[in-house]
Every structure is written in structure tokens, then in C-alpha cells.
Design goal:
binds zinc ion, about 60 residues, mainly beta, Rubrerythrin, domain 2, three-stranded antiparallel sheet, about 15% strand, single chain
Length: about 60
């Protein structure tokens, strides 16, 4: 997995990292879904922030 395909939530006290290999079971996102392919209304499973606050690790 390339770091630029991993996206980290930037809100304070969160730090959740979206890993496309794992997907997001809570959000019903299947494994292998790239961050860019997530629905626009997808939210961080930890803090509920939107996609806009996520930044690539690459
Ligand atoms: Zn978060």
C-alpha cells in the first residue's frame, strides 16, 4: 500500500487513517475502495468529520 493512498483525518484528537485495503466496515465501504472513490457524504468513523478534512500521507 502506497502512503499516498492512505488518508488521515486531520481533526484534533482523532488521527484515524483510512486504509483502502481495509475499507470501512462501519460505513459499509468494501475493501479495496480508494479514498477518492468514497461517497461525498462519507464520514470519519471515529469523529464524524467529512472527507475534506482528510489529507494524504504521501
Ligand atoms: Zn476523524
Amino acid at each position: 500500500m502506497k502512503p499516498e493512498e492512505m488518508y488521515q483525518c486531520q481533526t484534533s484528537n482523532c488521527g484515524y487513517i483510512y486504509n483502502p485495503e481495509k475499507g470501512d466496515r462501519k460505513g459499509k465501504i468494501s475493501k479495496g475502495t480508494q479514498f477518492e472513490a468514497l461517497p461525498d457524504d462519507w464520514k470519519c468513523p471515529i469523529c464524524g468529520a467529512g472527507k475534506k478534512v482528510f489529507k494524504s500521507l504521501g
